[in-house]
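Sequence in, structure out.
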Amino acid sequence: MLLSLLGILRRHRLPVSTGEWLDLLSALNAGVVFSNLDAFYYLARLCLVKDERYFDRFDQAFRVFIAGLDAAPLDSSDAILVGAITDLLASHEALELDEARLRRLLQ
């Protein structure tokens, strides 16, 4: 998924170095952002755009990247995860588990 972002940035002629790309991956691995598109946008822009004259190009490239995510089908691991979450929610409703017990089961 993220490699497609790098390709899109390069097609939009943004000078992204390997070091900058690794900085973004390190920040994501450290959990700086999680499941927040706005935070990911700002983190990616912070790590990958070193000159403000490229902000507009980055914005255009990021829009293309997000549009591609909306159109992309789920891969098998995503489908498995969605299925597991759906099953868990169904079990929660069927067993009428309280939130605290459900959190313990998830740990």
